């Protein structure tokens, strides 16, 4: 009788431990730190009514989440407008802290650097500052993470905006 109780207790413990692992942030953290992630976002700028300069932005980002809770992100912002002869490209380097809580990633950006070498002709300094500020605000949002597969994650903001992180 003791053997049966011990076996049932051991099996229950293994099943419960497996369930906790598969439904907790441990597995998600392992997937998140396992590779470098990319995303591509195209935003139409109707909400930026103040500037009336930028019609569309294409943001290509590479991000690496490190096991120590820090992250590094490099983003290329291509700004398009009928008023520009060619797109304006901004390169922004970002780093800070990240943590997982109940399948949500909470990002705390600490350092933003504009590493652009191109001339931003066509944009005034206040317009450029406004665009960078919108980018910073977007970075600070908490996002729910769902694993699509080993090479793709779905990030959903509280406002139901979605981004797919992918890795090759």
From TrEMBL:
Record Pfam families: ToxS
Entry-linked InterPro entries: ToxS
Any GO CC annotation of this UniProt entry: membrane
Protein name: Transmembrane regulatory protein ToxS
Naturally occurring in which organism (per UniProt): Vibrio algicola
